[in-house]
Amino acid sequence: MNTKDPQVHRVERVDDIPVLLATLHLLKVAENLDRHYPTGHLWKGELTFGEVTCVWICYIVSQGDHRLNRLQPWAEANRHTLQAALGKPVRPLDFQADRLAHILDRLALDENDEHLVWQDFEMDLNQHIVRVYHLKPDFLVVTP
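RESULT FIELD:
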């Protein structure tokens, strides 16, 4: 008979985080963001622009909160879940408000500033998420 008490190393609620990140992965959001918004040499950490943005989207949807300064503590509290879902080391500094403000600035650039980057990104993203069906109705309903 084992008389030792079990040791709990860490308890972390995963909630909807894995489902949200998996959905964003299937839609190739991070991949498309990284292709259209490459990071420069000043970007530190192992997470890419797209991965940080996806975690932020996950936070907004999961918590119903879009404030920049709330993401870093949330990411720190869910660091192990995020690492497991992303397959990379996650640092809370990856989600500091300054970095998120930089992401917003990049995404909000006018079309004259970045040669329609957002539209190119959106077109690539829509190839994975929008389905168009050509329907031929048997009859046409006309209402007066």
